[in-house]
Each structure stands twice: as structure tokens, then as C-alpha cells.
Specification:
GO cellular component, one term: plasma membrane
Distance between the termini: 56 Å
Strand order of the largest sheet: 1-3-2
InterPro entries: 7tm6_olfct_rcpt
Protein name: Odorant receptor
Mean pLDDT: 81
Subcellular location: Cell membrane
Helix content: over 70%
Number of strands: 5
Organism: Tribolium castaneum
Shape: elongated
Largest sheet: 3 strands, mixed
Order of helices and strands: HHEHHHHHEEHHEEH
């Protein structure tokens, strides 16, 4: 691993969530006993807003979707940390104990790998900065838009004091969202990049093994070491899949719903009415220029963030361990050839992250996500 602990930044925030086994009990009480009920209460207010009134335009539904998906993001992240907190702590410890140093092939190659982690760190900072800007803009909308009294659209009472309490509650919830972004999202992006580097080091180590000389035993010992590390990395990756499997299926569904709604706002300008049920009556009025710009900014930011997760996850799969580079045919040792055969079998195991067993997190699936959102938006446009 690198001499610099890149995971120290998200680890501190993970402990601060109160959902890891090592977290303080007081923080766990605040997270589970205070913030979670506030988020669930906000979901209730959003649903109540959706059911109230006889006629709602698509712009209001887009804002309700934004509010609902914001709650879904925070609840899904907290679920991951609460259910798999012990596994996250185990991954952090194993990374510190068993990951290879970046400079085992010299400082020059080590610096090349360090640059990969530095690039990922900069990307993480961009994501965090985007999250901060989004939260600030949500809060500022209540200043410039007089019809909007709270950052996240939901049902609000006529009493100004109660509305103020809901406003303060939403600000606290958005603060927790930012905290979750700094913890679980940063952790995932950094650990995936670090895992990819480990596969790069393993591949280079395998290429350095040469048989057919008087040092076959040393080469065999090195190959056994590579086999053990490869087995460890496969188990390590399987643990990541266990932790984030449910999160990715929620992320996929939420992204499709929001992206299709905002794509409709950008592409279609018709005015029409659509009655889906007695309480769901949507009026598709023409969005203004400001509405289209807001939807375009929200859509681009959301697709960039989701695309980042899919691309970095897919990058790990690309680093396939190529056992075929071994010149095993130059050795007459049956023991070595059997071990090479065993490594070939293990290298054929598919390295993938799935969302709930239904979604393969990779680049092609991300393209399919964008296409699905566009298709739904087109269908909505045809219905109007």
C-alpha cells in the first residue's frame, strides 16, 4: 500500500456517523434516534404533499422527486453503514495489514501508482464540492423563490413557527447527507482505486516470475505468494460487493426516476393533462427557461456522480490477472504445473459488483441507465 493513508479522510467521517462498531455510543444514539426519525418524517411530509391538491404540474413533481430521492440517498447510505459496519471496519483493517506497498517495484513505478490515487482524491474533492454547492443552492432557493418556503419541497403548515421547524429539520438532514457523502461515497471510490492498484501490482509480480532456470524453487515460492494475494483480493472484492449491493440497486432506480423526469422537462414543452388515478393528476405545463436550466444542471451533476461510481467500479474488473504470461512450459516440475493450473482456474472467476443480484455495475449498464431514462421521458412526451 502507499506510505500515505488515503483512507484516513473517509474513515474519520465513517466513525463520526456513529454506525460503525468502533463509533461512540452517543453518536449512534444521535444518528439512529434523532436523524433517522427526522428523515422518515420528511418522507411522510413529501408523500402528504403529493397526495394533497387536485392538480399538480410536472415541475412540482420533479421537485417532489428531488426531495424523495434525497431521503432515499441518506437512508440507503445509513442502511449500508448500519448493517455492514463491522464488514467496513474489517476492510479498513485488512487494507492496512495486507495490501502491498506501491514501491515494491521501485520508487518510479510507485510514483505512477500514487498519481492514480491522487487523481481519485481530486475527483472525490470535486464530488464533495458539488454536493456542498447543491446544498447551498437548495437553501438559496427559499430566498429567491417566494413560493418555496423550505429547501426540500414537502407539505408545510400555515403556521410560520412550524414551517421554521421543518426548515431547520431539512437543513440538519442535508448536513447529514453531506456527512454521508464524505464517509461512505469517498470510502468506496478510494478503496476501489486502491484495489485496482493491487491488481496492477499483482499482475506485474506475475510477469516477473521466470521458470526454466536453476531458481525454480524461488520462482515457485513467489508464485505461491501471488496466489495467496490473489485469493485475498478476490475475497476483499466479494466483501465490497456484499456491502454495496443493495446501495447500487437503490442508486440505479432513483437515478432512472429523476433523470427521466428532468429529461422530460428539458426536451418537451407541451401543455396537457394526465389523470393516472383519483389522487395523481398531473398537469404538464410548459417549463420556462429557468426551469430547463435548473433541470439541466441537476441532471448533469447527478449523471456525472453516478457515472463516476460505475466507471471506477468497472476499472477494477479491467485489471484481469493474466496467468498466461508465465513461461510454465519451461519447467519440468509437475508440482509447479499443477499450481499454475490452479491459478488459471482461480483467474477465471468473474470480478464484478452487482446491485441486488439484478444489476451489473459496469460501463455498459450505465449507458443502459441513460437510455432507459431517455426512453421514459420520450414516453411521457408522447402521452402529452
Amino acid at each position: 500500500m502507499s506510505s500515505k493513508n488515503y483512507l484516513s479522510f473517509p474513515t474519520g467521517f465513517l466513525l463520526g456517523t456513529g454506525l460503525l462498531p468502533e463509533s461512540k455510543f452517543s453518536r449512534k444514539i444521535v444518528s439512529i434516534g434523532v436523524f433517522t426519525p427526522m428523515t422518515l418524517f420528511l418522507v411522510y411530509l413529501i408523500v402528504k404533499k403529493a397526495r394533497n391538491g387536485e392538480n399538480k404540474d410536472v415541475l412540482l413533481w420533479a421537485e417532489l422527486f428531488e426531495s424523495l430521492t434525497t431521503c432515499a440517498h441518506i437512508l440507503s447510505r445509513k442502511y449500508v453503514m448500519y448493517v455492514h459496519g463491522g464488514l467496513i471496519s474489517q476492510i479498513i483493517k485488512e487494507r492496512g495489514c495486507y495490501f502491498w506497498n506501491y514501491d515494491i517495484f521501485g520508487p518510479k513505478f510507485g510514483q505512477t501508482l500514487e498519481r492514480k490515487m491522487n487523481i481519485c482524491t481530486k475527483i472525490v474533492k470535486i464530488v464533495v464540492s458539488g454536493g456542498v454547492v447543491t446544498i447551498v443552492l437548495f437553501c438559496l432557493t427559499t430566498v429567491f423563490d417566494k413560493s418555496k418556503v423550505v429547501p426540500l419541497v414537502c407539505w408545510t403548515p400555515e403556521d410560520s413557527l412550524q414551517t421554521g421547524i421543518i426548515y431547520a429539520m431539512e437543513v440538519l438532514i442535508m448536513f447529514e447527507i453531506m456527512w454521508a457523502l464524505l464517509s461512505i461515497d469517498c470510502f468506496y471510490l478510494l478503496i476501489c482505486t486502491d484495489l485496482r492498484i493491487q491488481f496492477i501490482l499483482l499482475q506485474r509480480m506475475i510477469k516477473s516470475i521466470k521458470f526454466g532456470s536453476n531458481h525454480d524453487e524461488k520462482s515457485f515460492a513467489k508464485m505461491v505468494h501471488c496466489t495467496q494475494h490473489h485469493k485475498f483480493l478476490l475475497h476483499f472484492h466479494a466483501k465490497l460487493n456484499t456491502i454495496f449491493s443493495s446501495y447500487f440497486i437503490v442508486l440505479y432506480l432513483v437515478t432512472v426516476a429523476c433523470a427521466s423526469m428532468h429529461t422530460y422537462i428539458i426536451l418537451f414543452k407541451q401543455v396537457a393533462n394526465l389523470d393516472i388515478s383519483d389522487w395523481l393528476k398531473v398537469r404538464f405545463r410548459s417549463p420556462g427557461f429557468g426551469d430547463s436550466i435548473k433541470s439541466a444542471c441537476y441532471l448533469s451533476g447527478m449523471l456525472f456522480q453516478v457515472g463516476l461510481y460505475f466507471v471506477i467500479t468497472s476499472n477494477v474488473e479491467i485489471e484481469v490477472v493474466e496467468i498466461y504470461n508465465l513461461n510454465w512450459e519451461n519447467t519440468g516440475s509437475v508440482k509447479i504445473r499443477k499450481h499454475v493450473l490452479f491459478m488459471l482456474m482461480k483467474s477465471q472467476e468473474e470480478l464484478s459488483v452487482t446491485g441486488g443480484g439484478m444489476l451489473h455495475v459496469k460501463r455498459n449498464e450505465y449507458v443502459g441507465l441513460v437510455r432507459l431514462a431517455y426512453t421514459i421521458a420520450t414516453i411521457l412526451g408522447g402521452m402529452t
